[in-house]
Design a protein that fits this description.
Shape: globular
Number of domains: 3
Largest sheet: none
Radius of gyration: 18 Å
Distance between the termini: 27 Å
Order of helices and strands: HHHHHHHHHHHH
Structural class: mainly alpha
Number of helices: 12
Strand content: under 5%
Length: 212
C-alpha cells in the first residue's frame, strides 16, 4: 500500500508544481481503504474492526519511520517536528488507529444535528482541539499555537457553536486571523476527510452488501 501511496503523492506534486496540498490525506485514505477492504473481506465491516486493523497494520510505524532518523539527514516538516518537539504527527495518529477519527470525528458527526455544513464545521473544530495538528505547528513555528486554538474554539462553543449567528461570527473572525497569520488546519482537515470517508463507508457499504 505504501508504494501505491508514493505514486499518488508523486502525481499530486506533479499536478501542484511541488506544493503539498494533501499528502496527509493520500496517506490516511490509503491506510483506511486497505483496512476497510480487509475488514469487509473478513465479514466484519465495523468501525471497531477497521480501527483494530489499522493498529495491526501500523504497529511498528513510529519505530521504523521516526525511531531510526539521524539529525544530520534531510527531513520532512513532520520529521523535523518530531526531532524538535517530539510531535509524532500523522504517523502517531495512524499508529494509534486514528483516534481523532473513531473516538472524536465520527461520534461528533453522528451526534450533531442541523444541516450538513453545521455538522462538518462542528466536527472539524472538535478534531482540531484534540490533535497536535502538525500543519498548524509548522505554520506557527511554535507548538503553543495548539493551546491558543483550543481557547479560540472554546469561545465559539460558549457562544452556542457554529449553529448560532454569534458562533459563526466568531469562527469567521478566527478564519480572518488564520489568513492574516498564514495558519492552516491541514492536519485536522485530513482527519475530517477521513471521518467523512468512514461515515460513508459504514452507512452505505453495509446496504450495498445486503443487496448483493
Amino acid at each position: 500500500m505504501r508504494e501505491f501511496g508514493k505514486r499518488a503523492e508523486q502525481q499530486m506534486f506533479a499536478t501542484t508544481n511541488g506544493v503539498n496540498t494533501h499528502k496527509g490525506a493520500v496517506f490516511t485514505l490509503g491506510v483506511l481503504s486497505a483496512a476497510t477492504g480487509y475488514a469487509w473481506q473478513q465479514g466484519a465491516l465495523t468501525a471497531e474492526r477497521v480501527q483494530q486493523t489499522v493498529k495491526e497494520m501500523l504497529v511498528d510505524l513510529i519505530a521504523d519511520d521516526l525511531g531510526k532518523m539521524k539529525a544530520d539527514q534531510d527531513h520532512t516538516a513532520g520529521e523535523n517536528q518530531y526531532l524538535k518537539y517530539g510531535i509524532t504527527g500523522i504517523r502517531g495518529e495512524a499508529a494509534a488507529g486514528y483516534p481523532s477519527v473513531f473516538q472524536i470525528g465520527l461520534p461528533t458527526l453522528q451526534a450533531t444535528s442541523g444541516d450538513w455544513q453545521t455538522r462538518i464545521l462542528t466536527t472539524l473544530l472538535a478534531i482540531a482541539t484534540q490533535i497536535e495538528d502538525s500543519t498548524l505547528v509548522h505554520r506557527a513555528k511554535d507548538p503553543k499555537v495548539i493551546t491558543w486554538l483550543q481557547d479560540k474554539v472554546a469561545k465559539i462553543e460558549q457562544l452556542g457553536g457554529v449553529a448560532t449567528a454569534a458562533g459563526m461570527n466568531q469562527l469567521t473572525a478566527l478564519q480572518t486571523e488564520f489568513s492574516d497569520r498564514y495558519l492552516s488546519l491541514g492536519g485536522s482537515a485530513d482527519m475530517l476527510i477521513a471521518t467523512l470517508f468512514m461515515e460513508f463507508v459504514l452507512t452505505e457499504v453495509p446496504d450495498a452488501l445486503s443487496i448483493t
